[in-house]
Amino acid sequence: MDLILIPGFWLNGDSWNDVAPALRDAGFTVHTPTLSGLHSVDDDRSDVTLASQIAEVVALVDSIEAGREIVLVGHSGGGSIIHAVVDARPERIRRAVYVDSWPTADGVAINEELEVAGDEVPLPGWGEFGEADLRGLTDDLRAWFRRIAIPQPVHVARDPQRLHDPRRYAVPVTLVASTFTREELDGYLAAGHPYFAELPHLASLTVVELPTGHWPQFTRPADLAAALTEAARG
Q1: What is the pLDDT at residue 194?
Q2: Which of 39, 45, 129, 224 lies 20 to 30 A from 182 at CA?
Q3: At what angle do helices 50-63 and 78-88 cross, to 10 degrees?
Q4: Cα distance between residue 213 and residue 134, in whole Å
Q5: Number of domains making up the chain
Q6: Which segments constitute the AB hydrolase-1 domain (predicted)?
């Protein structure tokens, strides 16, 4: 089974380094791609779009031998990318796992409120994040995160999601909830919150609570690896 792990904003494939070894030890083939615009702080991000990053992951799916089972994992903004990949290749995906994220609906941008500098979105100051986001992120982790952070291409943050194939709803979904609970999610759904417009249409939804901050791959990597292993095998 192949696991494709897509990082959230400001991160490249190395952000999974504390999670991927346990997944490989569990027998999975693990892919941790770094998407365009996120290889270096010096990258040209002007032509990187949400659609172009999605196309990169679709190409990776297409490169995997037919018949192999594929599980997509997306952290934070990476959740929007994997959802579009599910939409593009629903017949290839065994399960989609959203790490402190969820499937972004058609027409919705990942985050239009982040402050922009030219063609990029720098990592904001910690005061711009909620208290729940920062749980478990020690001073040392914050300093390290800021050292490795790469500005996000602005078009990835602001381009609207585009979905086309209702077969995406048949692909089982797991939400690994780190900054919200199942009870809170049920409240959002009952209120018809637009961020969660895709969830009522899913044929299969599993919610796994992993209480910590928004970056469990840094704050609880072993527990996240265990949750991903269980989701993939489930």
Answers
A1: 87
A2: 129
A3: 60
A4: 5
A5: 1
A6: 3-227
Q: What is the mean pLDDT of the chain?
A: 97
Q: Are strands 70-75 and 93-99 parallel, antiparallel or unpaired?
A: parallel
Residues 33/4, Cβ–Cβ less than 8 Å: yes
pTM of the full structure:
0.97
* Residue 37 confidence (pLDDT) above 90: yes
208 beta partners: 176
Helices (H), the chain: 20-25, 50-63, 78-88, 139-148, 154-158, 182-190, 216-219, 221-233
Q: How do beta strands 173-177 and 205-209 pair?
A: parallel
List CB contacts of 86: < 8 A, sequence separation 6 or more: 72, 93, 96, 103, 168, 171
The total number of residues written for the chain in this structure: 234
Contact by Cβ (8 Å): 52, 85: no
Strand pairing class (120-121; 152-153): antiparallel
What is the average per-residue pLDDT within 20-24?
Answer: 98
DSSP of 124-190, one letter per residue?
PPGGGS-TTTTTT--HHHHHHHHHH--PEEHHHHHSBP----GGGGGS-EEEEESSS-HHHHHHHHH
Supply the pLDDT for residue 222.
98
* Alpha carbons 145 and 208: distance in angstroms, whole number: 25
Cβ atoms of 71 and 2 within 8 Å: the answer is: yes
Give the Cα-Cα-Cα angle 210, 211, 217 (nearest 5 degrees): 65
